[in-house]
Amino acid sequence: MNTNPDKTPRILIGFDFGMKRIGVAIGQTITQTARPLDTIQAKEGIPNWSAITKLIHKWLPDALVIGIPLNMNGTEQPITQYARQFANSLKERFQLPVYEIDERLTTKDAREQLFTQGGYKLLQDGQVDRVAAQLILQNWFAEKLNK
Which tens digits make up the pLDDT trace of 52-73? Predict the structure, then answer.
């Protein structure tokens, strides 16, 4: 599925994993920008794989980025292992490189950003999850591509 001739991913899909919802964003390395894409429903941490497969087939990413939730002191929390299992499942299912990145405060930052843009009405319908995924991808670009 990876059509990129060199090893630098160009199109990436980012995920903000949650037990009920998984935010999804799309980004590319040329401009190092990302945008919110979708929110996928999950039941007890099990994602709607059909919806994820459709996104992968539509956008043909070169790699995937998963936000890994950690406590503020850097230790793992109960959801951390679920997020890592999700990352492993993505890698196995789609045979794409999967990068993990610390996602601390991305949901808080997404909420603040959306509230500033439009108040409480933008905090509904999975918008926070999508914007958190966008922030996860943008943080990955900043951390991995600008060293």
Answer: 999 999 999 999 999 998 877 8
